[in-house]
Amino acid sequence: MIKLDIPYLPDEDIVPYALDFLLKYNPENKVPVPIEEIIEFDFSIDIVPLPGLQRLCDVEGFISPDFTTIYVDDFVYENRPYRYRFTLADKTHQF
Description:
- The chain is α+β, with helices and mostly antiparallel strands.
- The protein has a domain at 45-95.
- It is 47% helix and 14% strand.
- The chain contains 5 helices and 3 strands.
- A 3-stranded mixed β-sheet has the order 1-3-2.
- The mean pLDDT is 90.
């Protein structure tokens, strides 16, 4: 099993990072944040729907080890837009 050494950060430490991200990637202050476009065009990451991912692996999405592709369950991609956007945003916290 991979052990990640990720420190806990309180909200007051996270807020400046979030604001910097929004200023850089969403300067027009669009709501909702265009996370799909940011991922594809600014980070050059492909988004690929996979049939049955959630059923087979019990996950809604995952990012490839080389960080070039985010795979998302096709049902979530097509039918659950809020969950889809959350899954994308969750997979980009490394950036």
